Amino acid sequence: xxxxxxxxxxxxxxxxxxxxxxxxxxxxxxxxxxxxxxxxxxxxxxxxxxxxxxxxxxxxxxxxxxxxxxxxxxxxxxxxxxxxxxxxxxxxxxxxxxxxxxxxxxxxxxxxxxxxxxxxxxxxxxxxxxxxxxxxxxxxxxxxxxxxxxxxxxxxxxxxxxxxxxxxxxxxxxxxxxxxxxxxxxxxxxxxxxxxxxxxxx
Length: 202
Known about the structure:
The chain is α/β, with parallel strands linked by helices. It has one domain: Nucleotidyltransferase, domain 5 (2-Layer Sandwich). The protein has six helices and seven strands. It is globular and about 45 Å long.
């Protein structure tokens, strides 16, 4: 049975969260989760270089088959969007430079995949990620579980049962070829009946 890994990344300019998920058949298990600490680096270009170097190192250390990234949130603060877009871009470039397939997910899709609602809080996402993967010790920062959530979102999206609900943008090769990937027929409601731990508790 083939075993492969997914590296999930939640890009940020102060902390970039990451998680590595190992997949063996229909069994998934966490390998590592953490964050890249950038808050003490004042030079914005030095931050980008550090993200690039650390993502390259994560790819080398854990050898994921695929890399999934959360795309920037489109808000009213243009400068924040620009900074997040740059952070995502260098993380993407690092993965592509190591010949890894890269997939992008909107923040609302990540939350939908993990909790069933696109408006879930970081705390709700973190709690369900930890319960789903049997993680006992909470990470230092929620950015780490955010990164693992992106990896989980990619796994759920590219394998049944919720592929009909979510889609991924795939970036293949350095040419930037993108395509939507949607499969499956099972509804979210049916998935929740079979996986009650994924439902957000009000």
